[in-house]
Amino acid sequence: MSCIFCEIVKGKIPCYKIYEDEHTLAFLDIGQEGFGHTLVIPKSHSESFINSNLEELTYCIKTAEKISKHYIQNCGFSGVNILINNGESAGQSVMHFHIHIIPRKNGDNILNWKIPKDETSLEEVRKMLEVKE
Length: 133
Ligand code: AMP
Ligand code: ZN
Known about the structure:
The protein is α+β, with helices and mostly antiparallel strands. The chain has helices at 4-10, 54-74, 122-129, and strands at residues 17-20, 24-28, 38-42, 79-83, 99-104.
């Protein structure tokens, strides 16, 4: 099955490249939800965050850190949101692991989380979600 991000890595689909190294590629998100909305991907295909190996995740995190610093130190932004959607229910639409970087400025008001408050007690939630190795 063809993967749009693998096609971008191979150069078969164009992208607006921000950065590239041996293991990762970063390019502008076509949706531009926020000026400079950027995606960081591993060059080798893995479906999602939980399906990536630690090495690939590390390469991507290092690239995301490098670009975030560049945006903040050299491009006039004061912060970034780092976002990973894992799985369809979490909003992942492209099944090639990617990290979103959304550059931010004070008062830009561009991220408007619409997550309703959950009323379950924290102890109940903790009991259900605790990691038991
Ligand atoms: P997600 O919803 O986390 O899977 O994010 C996938 C992102 O990929 C979306 O924000 C899309 O706008 C973006 N996208 C899809 N196709 C392309 C493309 N050809 N070039 C750049 N970004 C893309
Ligand atoms: Zn792929």
